[in-house]
Amino acid sequence: MSDHYTAYRQAESPIAPKQKRLPLYGAGFDNLGALIEQDVPTPAADQLLVRHDAIGLCFSDIKILTQGGQHPRLQGRDLQKNPVIMGHEVIMTVVKVGEKLNGQYKPGDRFIIQADIYVDGVNLAYGYKIEGGLSEYGLIDQRILNGDHGNYLIPVKDETGYAESALAEPWACVIAAYTLKYRTEIKSGGTAWIIGTGNALDNYVVSHGMTKECHPARLMITRVPPKFEASLRACASELGIEVVEVASIGKAPSDQVDDIILLGADPDVVETVSPMLANGGILAVLSDKAMSRPVKLDVGRIHYEDWVYVGAAGNDIAQAYAQTPVRPDLRPDGKTLFAGAGGPIGRMHLQRALEKPNGPKTIVCTDASDARLKDLEDTYAAEAKAKGVRFICLNPMQKEAYAKGMAEFTAGGFDDVVILAPVAPVISETGRYMAPGAVMNIFAGVARGTMAEIDLSDAYMKQTRIIGHSASTIDDLKEVLRQIEAKELATNRSVAAVGSLEAAKEGLKAVKEAAYPGKVVIFPHIKELSVTPLADLKEKLPSVYAKLNNGREWTHEAEEEFLRQMLKQ
């Protein structure tokens, strides 16, 4: 039977001459105007006209709203004259094909998009420089179809749901955090800086990383003990490494240093030289004595620039890298702390941990909201129990109960600490609970320049590791979509509320205020619907509610019933 829903799925619905869009004209919600009407564009010969079917609202959108034209990806753009259309977590359907693309694409083709689009090395980004999903229709041009990494569109199977496809993008960021590979030696061809401190030894060696096959192109040295300096210079001369003597750590001739190696422990030196790390840079400390105080680290740059802090006792620089390689994934059968776990991304981390084969056996989730913690327990406690996972939820604002709950982890600590709250005191406080060999992953999008105090002595005395992560690659997104379509990953579990394009502003405010424990998904082609949590569908759309899983989780069946009732005729 052919009906409006089927016609929509097959891209056979008529296209109105006008479309609605949600432009942002500057920083703040006051500059997020009401929906505007504009002509639906006609694709050029090498373009596609796509229909935006569903968009997940993201905290990255809030960063655009907060910063406006000062956002790093929008600087230099006059948003009053050239407003931004946000929305990068999007599933789209081709509805018109430019004549040069006939045979390559057809109406009804469905895609998600890798939002980080690069052309000639410049990041354009869907929902930033390229108009995004908070509109009914959009144009896909050659920047997307033929960018630096090829085609940024990823095909979606006909039977795959809209919401679950749209949420592949945030899930890809989560999955990617556990698959990264980290260097286990000084960067070959890079710049290394070796700095002696007041408690440096005189007998350091480099057992690996200074060989014919693997060595830096440039070596900076500051206050290196004479015996070790002589051996470094001899090795550099043999390998053709440029050597630069740097008299003052405050005035290095480069602010892009791939490896900074401290001989001895000095928190003042760490704080002075850390800002000179390049993207993907590593700071290594060799010492067997604790630092005199915690170190103030820029945790925002750890997150966005993939800095890593490592260390080792003894005198072999190579051991600071290789003795305990960074472990990106959760320790099997270990203890994991998710700090700030009650939000949408925290729930994704938790869901992955519970669904992961050989995942952690103890999971502690913290959040400042009792309502969020209760929802975590209602959603995941039974599943954790069935899988033999000890599952604990604690609110740090309830100081007595929190202290009691965390007391057992004070001595032994956690194998993994995943930071999901962009709050410096949370990072500092949870750092106290790292077990020997533990990894702290600063996943939350902490602003650059945010400083947190961390005991860096643990990096060389307990072999702990501090890492950060943001974004994902096109391969990460493809892998998540594969898992979705193979029924290995249920991204629908992340949906907390749904609404129409008219409700997008309301939905963005809800994201900013952390009003819902999961994701808000906007459907641009439905009749007007305010942001509606799934539980409220029981009254508003009872036939949709009846098709939810356990009355709380979005399903294919619920989505179909929802669209059958709500699609514009």
Query: What's the CATH superfamily of the largest domain, by name?
Result: Medium-chain alcohol dehydrogenases, catalytic domain
CATH architecture descriptor text of the largest domain: Alpha-Beta Complex
Structural class computed from helices and strand pairing? alpha/beta
Separate helix tally = 20
Percentage of residues assigned to helices: 25-40%
Which spans of ≥5 residues are poorly predicted at pLDDT below 50? Answer: none
The CATH class of the largest domain? Alpha Beta
Main pleated-sheet profile = 8 strands, mixed
Beta content comes to: 15-25%
Based on CA atoms alone, the radius of gyration comes out at: 26 Å
- How far apart, in Å, are the first and last alpha carbons? 17 Å
CATH topology assignment of the largest domain = Quinone Oxidoreductase, Chain A, domain 1
Number of domains: 3
The gross shape turns out to be globular
Task: Fill in the keyword field for this structure.
569 residues, alpha/beta, Quinone Oxidoreductase, Chain A, domain 1, Rossmann fold, 3 domains, eight-stranded mixed β-sheet, 28 strands, 24% strand
